[in-house]
Amino acid sequence: MTAKVYVSGFGVFSAFGFGPEALFDGVFSGSPAFRMVTRFDVSHCRTGQAATYPEAAVSPPDAGPGLETVEVAIACGRQAIEMAGWRDPAELPVVLATKVRAPSVEPESPAEITERVADRLGLGRPRRTFVNACCAATNAIIHGAQLVRAGVTDAVLAGGAFLVDRQAFNLFDSAQALAADGQLRPFDQDRQGVLLGDGGAMLLLESGESIRARAAQPLVRLASWAMTNDAFHVAQPHAQGAGVAAAVTAALQRSGIGPDQLTYINAHATGTPLNDAAEAAGLHTALGRHTEQVFVSGTKSTTGHALEASGALEAVITLLAMRSSTLPPTAGLRRPDTRHPLRHVSVPERVEVPYALSLNSSVGGVNAAILLAAA
Fold first, then answer.
1. Claim to verify: residue 206 and residue 228 sit in the same structural domain
2. Is the torsion defined by CA of 59, 36, 14, 200 positive or negative?
3. I want to staple 26 with a disulfide (CB 3.0 to 4.6 A). Which of 16, 87, 238, 304 is the partner?
């Protein structure tokens, strides 16, 4: 019999700061964290805006001068372990999502970063690394959940970390993907593109048997998950969102629930014209006549796009929505796209959320969905 998988603790970081309180206050009030980038020169770029943390105001425990990706992952991992009340970190494998950097930018490989995080936290093995862009953290969580469900381990620490850097910023600027107006407005007719953001989150995933043995309290259950690839184009999504639809459908079917039981979706929602249109089309295909009943928001409108870490950050936001019975709004949504209309959350809404979906897509047609259920 396969084990049920729960989240028993998490740690989180965003441009709003460290911890769930800072994240909740910013995201759930619909207050964008975008500001002028000061950590590198952006004078030549399409925009100078990103959701970066204020360096002088925020620092995690044990961090040296100048926050690094490693420090973010360590701080989030420590938060997760402490929240869960897990006593022996050496019993925890780790699955970490991080980005591939040019040697001139970051001499360490992604695997070496994972090793350093694990060593600092005293974690066990296996230690695995995901780098597949915007789906990396979602895939890391799914892989961690599979280890628990298969009985390979009682618990695992899984998530990702990303800090806005010159390499990523210039890449998106060169592709003319950044919003020139300095606003990330998912699903809006006037959207101009994406904006990047600092982010990180680590989730302690644990079997129900382990939680009961420790007399611990689960936060939410990972009801199911799915990964798909529409194999359509190296950068553009399938116009009808075929991969998105397949991921949502598979996640629902594997959990044994129908679209009518789904309350909320935290969409990938990058604010780019092609991605948002394809995602909305895919949701219509997967949800059918129930599309108009399911609340949808794009929280990158407040946090920015944390690239490899976005799936973990947004899974935590989805968890907080379920725990607080409050839905976070899509900031800046003024004129919703009418081609594939959705039930947008434009202001914070009080709603009971028994089931919620966190959805991410990436280059190459990759899609990943995590379905959370009330514990």
1. no
2. negative
3. 16
Q: How far apart are CA 115 and CA 128, in angstroms?
A: 9
What pLDDT sits at residue 64? 41
CA-wise closest residue to 280 among 194, 359, 176: 359
Distance CA 282, CA 129 (A): 29
**pTM higher than the cut 0.90:** yes
Number of domains in the chain: 2
Q: What is the radius of gyration, based on Cα positions, of the chain?
A: 19
CATH of the domain at 321: 3.40.47.10
CB 309 within 8 A of CB 162: yes
Cα–Cα distance between 140 and 349 in angstroms, integer? Answer: 30
Residue 288 shares a structural domain with residue 185: no
Q: Which domain holds residue 202?
A: 5-214
Of 175, 174, 199, which Cα lies nearest the Cα of 304? Answer: 199
d(CA 375, CA 364): 34
Which of these three, 164, 189, 214, is where a domain ends?
214
| Coarse DSSP helix, strand, coil percentages of the chain, rounded to the nearest 5 percent | 35, 25, 40
Summarised one tens digit per residue, pLDDT across range 328-375 is 999 999 999 999 999 999 999 999 999 999 999 998 889 999 999 999
Residues 259 and 291 in one domain: yes
| Same domain, residue pair 186 and 116 | yes
Using one digit for the tens of pLDDT, what is the confidence trace for 313-331?
Answer: 999 999 999 999 999 999 9
DSSP annotation of 133 reads G
